[in-house]
């Protein structure tokens, strides 16, 4: 019998450490993104997080699906959340997969699909913005990989929600000169009139 659809807000997300434990056997690139990535960089949880996001290379989806085999996966796009059939690969226009804990009736983690390579990180909203993956993915003291703060802030620059503004204000004093330079150039290219450019 197919479980009833979960509400979109039925999140009880894992801590990044739980995700890292479950993915310990996957020898392919992945990293935490979103607000949690900034907090892994800060070394402390600066605010509550309603979800947990991580990114993988699109071609590696079958491996990560196997690693998370206890979860029911759903393709997310255009405001719709649709279950993925067993063994199915998300279509090319889907870049987000929510992972449902059926027994607990909640979402545990949000898997993002990216089109970079093991060596190159590519900004999905403008593929001309790219960087060596080794420079863009860091690891915290517990060995959890996360996307560098300058890349996270580039994503957040699009929305400028209250939490994005707070995240930028907290991160700005800690960014070094190279991080500021890269982020300023990337925002100038993606959002030429953005207010953060002056702050950087």
Automatic annotation (TrEMBL):
SUPFAM superfamilies: Nucleotidyltransferase. InterPro entries: NT_sf. It comes from the Bacteria. This is Amino acid transporter. It comes from Shinella kummerowiae.
């Amino acid at each position: 019998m197919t479980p009833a659809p979960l509400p979109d807000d039925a999140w009880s997300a894992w801590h990044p450490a739980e995700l890292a434990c479950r993915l310990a056997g996957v020898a392919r690139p992945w990293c935490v993104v979103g607000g949690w990535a900034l907090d892994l960089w800060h070394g402390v949880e600066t605010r509550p997080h309603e979800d947990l996001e991580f990114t993988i290379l699109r071609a590696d989806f079958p491996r990560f699906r196997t690693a998370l085999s206890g979860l029911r996966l759903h393709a997310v796009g255009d405001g719709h959340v649709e279950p993925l059939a067993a063994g199915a690969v998300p279509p090319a226009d889907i870049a987000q997969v929510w992972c449902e804990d059926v027994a607990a009736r909640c979402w545990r983690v949000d898997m993002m699909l990216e089109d970079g390579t093991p060596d190159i990180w590519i900004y999905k909203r403008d593929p001309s913005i790219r960087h060596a993956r080794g420079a863009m993915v860091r690891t915290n003291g517990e060995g959890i990989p996360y996307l560098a703060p300058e890349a996270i802030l580039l994503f957040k620059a699009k929305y400028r929600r209250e939490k994005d503004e707070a995240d930028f204000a907290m991160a700005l004093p800690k960014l070094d000169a190279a991080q500021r330079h890269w982020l300023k150039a990337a925002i100038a290219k993606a959002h030429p009139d953005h207010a953060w450019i002056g702050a950087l």
